[in-house]
Amino acid sequence: MQLQDMVAKVGQDIGTSDWILVDQARIDAFADTTEDHQFIHVNPEMAKATPFGGTIAHGFLTLSLLSKMMETAIEKPQVTMSVNYGFNKVRFLTPVKSGQRIRGHFKLTELVEKRPGQWQQTVEVTVEIEGGDKPCLLAEWIFQHFA
């Protein structure tokens, strides 16, 4: 798909990802990578005594999974290169408990050509927990695409 063709999709939902299991092994691996070993993430026995009733994923783990979610959710534009430009907003609304599955819903909110051959795309992402009634994450994610 060409970037110019995507402009017509501004304001529309552009995809939903596959489900991703957030199990304790994934949480522990993320804790090791980030050196964030807070007990609510890695100690099931201690975490049972919290209002969560068990371990929960790091918010940043959920955020980091957006790349994988996007990979399964939307058709990539035909460009030379795309780079992550950052976020306008990120909110962690509901904790993801170990063993739950999550998936992302993507809405294209902006796609503009900043200069010839360089496009900026903003996507609204809502991440849901399977069977949950409230999203676990909301974000506005920005990309730069180079044709």
Secondary structure elements and pairings:
Layout: H1 3-6, E1 13-16, E2 20-22, H2 24-34, H3 39-42, H4 44-47, H5 59-64, H6 66-73, E3 81-92, E4 100-115, E5 118-129, E6 137-146
Antiparallel strand pairs: 1-4, 2-4, 3-6, 4-5, 5-6
Structure characterization notes:
By secondary structure, the protein is of the alpha+beta class. Helices cover 25% and strands 39% of the residues. The chain is built from 6 helices and 6 strands, in the order αββαααααββββ. Strands 1, 2, 3, 4, 5 and 6 form a 6-stranded antiparallel beta sheet that branches. The radius of gyration is 17 Å and the shape is elongated. The model has no long low-confidence stretch (mean pLDDT 96).
DSSP helical segment count:
6
Stretches where pLDDT is under 50 for at least 5 consecutive residues are none
Q: For the CA atoms, what is the radius of gyration?
A: 17 Å
Tell me the total number of β-strands. Answer: 6
Percent of residues in helices comes to 25-40%
Please state the structural category.
alpha+beta
Q: Write down the overall geometry.
A: elongated
Q: Could you give the distance between the termini?
A: 12 Å
Indicate the proportion of strand residues: 35-45%
Task: Tell me about the largest β-sheet.
Answer: 6 strands, antiparallel
SSE arrangement, N to C: HEEHHHHHEEEE
Mean model confidence by pLDDT = 96
